[in-house]
Amino acid sequence: MSVSRESIMTIIRRNNGANVDVLANEVDLAPATVRRHLDILERDGLVDHVEVRKRTGRPQHVFHLTEKGHDSVPKDYGRLLNELVKDIKSIPSHGLAGRSGDEILRDSLTRIGKKRAEEFSPGRNPIDAVRAAFEDGGYDPIIEAHEGGLKIRITNCPYRRATADDIIVCTVDQSMVQSLLGDGVEHQVSIAERANECVYLLSSDGLKKIDTVAAGS
Fold first, then answer.
1. pLDDT tens, position by position, 175-192
2. Which CATH number does the domain housing residue 142 bear?
3. Strand residues in 46-176 grouped as ranges (E)
4. Can you name the residues that pair with 145 across neighbouring β-strands?
C-alpha cells in the first residue's frame, strides 16, 4: 500500500471518519488525488462511505474504515494470550473449584490490567502512564480535554474482533485504566457496542484528585 493511502486510512481511523476536504488538508494532496486513493481503498474493501446531507450545497461523503480496514492495522493478540496463559497457570486448583469460566477469565483479565498499570506507573504521573501503556500496546490513544476532565480515545483496539464478540475482553483495559486513574474514570463507549473506537472519560473531579496527589508527592 502506498504511503499516501496508509496516511489517509490513519486519518480516517483517528478522526472516526473524514471527508475529502479534511483528508486533502491533512495529507497535503489535491482533493482529486485523494478521491483517486479513496476509490482504490473502497475497491479493496478497506473503506466505505456514507452520504451526509447539509443544509445547503451538495451532500458530502464521509469515509470510514471497514472491518477489513481495521484488521489491516497491526493487532497484538499474542501479547494478551501470553499474559492469560501465564496468569491462569498460576491459579491454584482450589482457586478454580466451583467457579464459572466467566469468573475465572474476568479475574485473570483484571489481574493482567493491574500488572500493566504497575509496569507503566513508576516515574510517570497517572495520565502519562495510561498513555504509555496504551501506546506500548499499539492502541494509538488520543487524550484530549473534555468538560474540565479528559477524554481518552482508543482508535486501534488490539482486540477489536474479540471484544466485538464478548465485552469481557475489555476487562483488561478497564482494570489498567481504573488502577491508574481511580474511580473518576468511566468507560463510556465500547467497540463491543459496535462503535468505531473505545472512549474513557475522566471527570473533572477525578482529574483534580490526580493533580492533588501529584502535587503532594
1. 999 999 998 899 987 776
2. 3.30.1380
3. 47-52, 60-65, 141-146, 149-154
4. 150
